[in-house]
Specification:
Number of domains: 2
CATH class of the largest domain: Alpha Beta
CATH superfamily of the largest domain: Glycogen Phosphorylase B
Radius of gyration: 22 Å
CATH topology of the largest domain: Rossmann fold
Strand content: 15-25%
Oligomer: single chain
Number of strands: 14
Shape: globular
Order of helices and strands: EHEEEHHEHEHEHEHEHEHEHEHEEHHH
Strand order of the largest sheet: 3-4-2-1-5-6-7-8
Distance between the termini: 20 Å
Length: 404
């Protein structure tokens, strides 16, 4: 079986969790014996080979590349081309006719647009789409308004935007999302009503020997003090302000808060760290440094104030035996077993987060049990399981023979 995966960006352009998930999927399918190629955007039209995956990078006709909006007119042009980009049709059609995949698996389509579905359909190729964010619901991608708060009342222009996307995405053959929440919010907004949808969690590669070594390290670790850690964007919607405000109210000198990431709140955090020496802000960390920070920490906190579609950092924490304090928004509570692998809190309540901190501070003896639960929970997110689920879905579509 041959699969063509389409995503806006591909390694080494890693914009967020979506790109990591797409890369792991592509390489996992190759390791499973499938033929895989990727279509993505690029500065120029080139073909790369990365870890056995053939990568077509297309210089698209819209102006947008990572963070390069220059003026409002080009921004509007990009938005229109993201909705429907006829210039990309010929390029994609040529690739699909050459490669002849059984399945086209689309993800984020910034810079490419749903025009890919026209090309797939005229070549009688089955289409799977995976929801990685809320792009087709919200032009801002994250369902937040201009105040960076959850938007519950979309304006007329957003409603029109949704209406256009309902039409453009109506011809896919199957839909997947990394959480039940993500599937549900699209369904609640009248998307994909007559399309079979599946929840296939994001996944991680697991070295079980290393995992056992990590477990033993954790349960033998002394916990005279507790180190909480946050990894991610330093932005308002990530709950950074609420995290620091809640932590600052804990009157305990044997706890600390490590924060690692980049974003527009870096200056704010630096100021807070000067007032409270228990707070430490790290510079950008590479993978090795991130691993060391997680191993040196005790509890991960993900205080999101927006609907995280999944929350990959949670399973990264499990990989290093860290319990998780997580917001009850989006897909996060689906992957945390409350008081078993961590604590779920209400981000709208400062006391709720303070209570979550205090649960671990007051119950250090329970942490080893929770660590063991995290290690067991991680097995659900083994990349091999995810690959099997996608292969089964692809096979069922190919075997069905009918096309929309």
């Amino acid at each position: 079986m041959k699969v063509g995966i389409i995503n806006a960006y591909y390694y080494p352009e890693i914009i967020g969790g979506a790109e990591l998930s797409v890369k792991k999927l592509a390489e996992g399918l190759v390791n499973k014996g499938l033929e895989v190629f990727v279509i993505t955007t690029g500065e120029n039209n080139v073909v790369d080979y990365i870890e056995g995956v053939k990568v077509y990078r297309l210089k698209t006709n819209n102006f947008f590349r990572v963070g390069k909006y220059k003026n409002p007119i080009k921004k509007v042009t990009d938005r229109l081309l993201d909705i429907y980009n006829p210039f990309n049709f010929k390029k994609i059609n040529i690739i699909l006719r050459k490669e002849k995949p059984n399945i086209v698996h689309t993800n984020n389509l910034y810079g490419i647009s749903p025009i890919v579905y026209n090309a797939a359909k005229i070549n009688s190729i089955k289409i799977v789409h995976t929801l990685r964010d809320y792009y087709i619901l919200c032009p801002r991608v994250n369902l937040l308004n201009k105040k960076n708060e959850i938007c519950n009342n979309p304006c007329i222009s957003c409603q029109l935007y949704r209406g256009v996307n309902r039409y453009l995405f109506k011809n896919i053959d199957a839909l997947t999302a990394p959480s039940q929440f993500t599937n549900r919010i699209f369904n609640d907004n009248d998307f994909f009503k007559h399309i079979n949808s599946y929840t296939i969690h994001n996944a991680i590669e697991i070295d079980y020997k290393e995992l056992e070594e990590t477990r033993l390290y954790r349960i033998n670790k002394k916990r005279d003090s507790l180190r909480f850690v946050y990894l991610g964007a330093l932005s308002k919607h990530k709950g950074i302000i609420e995290l620091i405000n809640s932590f600052s109210k804990i009157e305990n000198d044997s706890v600390s808060l490590e924060i690692a990431g980049e974003g527009n709140l870096r200056g704010f955090i630096q100021g807070e760290a000067k007032k409270d020496n228990r707070i430490k802000l790290h510079r950008f960390l590479n993978e090795k440094e991130k691993k060391n920070l997680l191993l040196d920490s005790d509890i991960l906190v993900i205080p999101s104030m927006w609907y995280e579609p999944f929350g990959r950092v949670v399973i990264e924490a499990y990989k290093y035996g860290l319990p998780v304090i997580g917001s009850n928004l989006g897909g996060i509570p689906e992957i945390i077993d409350n008081y078993s692998t961590g604590v779920i809190f209400n981000p709208e309540s400062e006391d709720s987060l303070i209570n979550a901190f205090n649960y671990f501070i007051d119950n250090k003896k329970l942490i080893n049990e929770i660590v063991n639960n995290c290690i067991k929970k991680l097995h659900e997110f083994d990349l091999d399981i995810q690959i099997e689920q996608f292969v089964d879905l692809y096979s069922s579509l190919v075997d069905s023979g009918d096309h929309r």
